[in-house]
Amino acid sequence: MRLEGVLTAVRVSAARGTRLRTKRVESVRVLRGAAGIMGFLALWELGVLAHVPILAQIPAPLEVARAQWQLLHEARYYVDWLVSLERVSAGFLIAALVGIPLGLLMGWRAKFRYLTFPVFEILRPIPPLAWVPLSIVFWPTTESSIVFVIFLGAFFTVVLNTLAGVRAIDQRYVRAAISLGATPAIIFRRIILPGALPSIFTGLTVGMGITWSVLIAAEIIAGKSGLGYMTWEAYVAGAFPIIIAGMFSIGVAGYASSAVVRLVARYAMPWTKPF
Amino acid sequence: MDEAVLAQGLQVRSIVKRFTGGGGEVTVVDGCSFSVPHGTLSVMLGPSGCGKTTLVNLIAGYEVPSAGEILLDGNRVRGPGPERIVVFQESALFPWMTVLDNVTFGPQSRRGRADAALRERARGLLAGVGLDEFAHRYPSQLSGGMQRRAELARAIVNEPSLMLLDEPFRGLDAMTRELMQEQYLQLFEANSRTTLFVTSELREAIFLADRLLIMTPRPARVRRTIDVDLPRPRELGMLASARFREIYEETLLTLEEPTWPTAAVS
To answer: Are residues B132 and B116 in the same domain?
Structure first.
């Protein structure tokens, strides 16, 4: 007992040490990341100044920064952000709301899986953009067809990861729960759902990335607004710095939305947090 | 002893278990019979791969015997149930629940609600195994030995009529293992639950057991029963006693006796 106590104390203090070390490692990592971005920008600027063949056609970072600054003073830029965010959020949320329950059910009930999986696997390889013509015909408004295509982008990944997450749950947890007297409803809620959660969040993170790439393409094809449309419009108008500023905005938007998913994951799964 | 008392505890009667695999039929358990009297601890001892875990799964109700019957306190076993709790070799604590939620999971699942009294009782049990400070930690934040103790608390909180422990201390380092054995015995001696404990470690078996069930190699059957009359409460010091050594040698001789193929082998 005493020995265990000592071991425990050692473990706890080791954990504390790890936490401090983690903090230091993190700040070093942030500094490295910042240095990497600065280096990238410097190479780009130098490349443009030195008239390196392809780079010479591209606006220099400073020029892009000026264009970005100008955009920040235009109300339309914010509207484009808002419109794109709305479309992504709508498509992504619907994909999660439909995809997670469907994946859980497919993973949990073999008969349902045998019934639905072949249909699912035939539809899955179709690129979301191949749906654009049909969805424009099918849906009453352009807006709803764009949201639908975004939904498809995330949907298959979410379902597949949820399904895999359920299937990967160790049977000993299910056995233990049955043994302890849990009903199927309790097993579903307290074992299957939390057990699949890490995989579900992997699906959501990957799905979120796909929604942005689909969104931009959908906006170029069918949109009248949004960050993708803005970038395309700048190309048509020959405003090269704006193109890059638009690309940069999309990058930031994608990064931020993935960060939100990761943050939600951390709160939803406190047991995976390093201590 | 009258009939009612005899019917208490676990009775395994002529159990046969065959599995049909790719290459045909395999008999893993063949006519195995034994009993664990109410409130006592029997240790099943045998070489690994002899079918001990299959017997545990049969008694737990995860598997259905091909022939024979299993009775617990006079009732025939049909499927898993909270009156027979298994503690496995690998931790089966739910990683996504705190230690306290793990312990209250069983009673809460059956009653539908975790009331204050249940939480109180769970905390008391955790204190009993030295984990009161860790009630709100997750299993991954505990050492192997602590996980085993949390698992014992999770089993005992259900007040099962039978505890099945399948090599629960395997994989722990030697020192932790001895501590666990001692702690486990305190827990057993305080509660006296009917217990079947499976191990392949001889010293552990004798130290814990009221009765040893020495198994044949596969197909599993009880080759010999040895009663361990070491007094309770026991402590690790008894491992050096003369009586312990006698039982140890006797058991070892039985284990080393050659086994002859039986007619049942196909």
So the answer is: yes
